[in-house]
Amino acid sequence: MRVPGNEHLSKAEWRARVLQARASVSPAEHAAEAEALASAAVSVAAETVCAYVPFDTEPGSVSLLNALVKAGSRVLLPVIPDVVGPLDWAVYTDESTLVPGRLRGILEPSGPRLGVDAVSEADVVLVPALAVDRRGVRLGRGAGHYDRSLTSGRADRFAVVRAEELVDSLPGEAHDVPMSGALTPAGLVRLPSPAVM
Ligand SMILES: Nc1nc2c(c(=O)[nH]1)N(C=O)[C@@H](CNc1ccc(C(=O)N[C@@H](CCC(=O)O)C(=O)O)cc1)CN2
Ligand SMILES: Nc1ncnc2c1ncn2[C@@H]1O[C@H](COP(=O)(O)OP(=O)(O)OP(=O)(O)O)[C@@H](O)[C@H]1O
User: Fold this and answer.
1) Which Pfam families match (predicted)?
2) Measured between alpha carbons, how far is 134 from 70 in angstroms, rounded to an integer?
3) Rounded mean pLDDT of 56-67?
């Protein structure tokens, strides 16, 4: 990810590169990183934490959610809305209550929907990302779900990435909500990003 010239890649090119690199991570390496992320997550445990269930090649696993619950956090997970707009939220209790959602079968809690404003109750939001740069610019999958959901709030926003996905510079846009840190298998890296207004 530090190849000279990377800084000129478009968002689409970055996405393709990261997804390709993730596809070559072995199951053993993925499992080791997921356990390391679960340990690192304890350091960000807070009263209410918004997290998500990793799918496909995303780093992490439900171990991370279980570690947060064990540490005493109230954990909220996103529920993908039927119409384009901010994410809905529901409480995570344990794996047995997760059901496949409408997008790529990403697991979601089957319990009551709390509404789009529930994210404002969070002290910490763990945000899925393909990469994040040292200024806090995050690269997502391009649906804008999180940028629409994090427009206000006092929460710390931590992008969850593999260590090599914390990069020097990503292409940013005005609507990109800055991350306050990167949660990696090596631990939490705080980033000097401005607060969301
Ligand atoms: N685990 C997880 N949960 C999440 C997200 C996420 O990125 N990861 N989201 C983050 O917003 C929201 C769901 N948004 C998503 C948006 C796109 C794709 C997706 O798989 N997109 C395809 C490309 C689709 C296309 O070609 O247009 C892909 O990336 O392969 C998945 C989830 C809420 N929950
Ligand atoms: N606050 C917002 N209000 C309305 N549209 C938005 C907002 N934020 C992003 N979008 C739109 O969402 C689309 C995807 O944005 P972007 O490429 O930044 O997604 P992303 O951050 O990579 O994806 P995601 O947040 O789903 O992981 C863009 O077309 C953008 O215009």
Assistant:
1) 5-FTHF_cyc-lig
2) 30
3) 98
Instruction: Give ipTM to 2 decimals.
Output: 0.90
For residue 121, the Cα-to-chain-centroid distance in whole angstroms is 17
Pocket lining: 145 vs ligand 2, CB cutoff 6 Å:
yes
Domain 11-187: CATH class, spelled out = alpha beta
Q: pTM for the complete prediction?
A: 0.94
Q: Which two tokens stand for residue 27?
A: 């199951």
Q: How many Cβ atoms are within 10 Å of 110's Cβ, its own excluded?
A: 12
Ligand 2: atom nearest CA of 143 is 26
State the closest ligand 2 atom to the C-alpha of 148, by its place in the atom list counted from 1. Answer: 1
Contact, 149 vs 50, CB < 8 A?
A: no
On whether the CB atoms of residues 193 and 180 are closer than 8 A, the answer is yes
Give the tens place of pLDDT for each residue, 10-19: 999 999 999 9
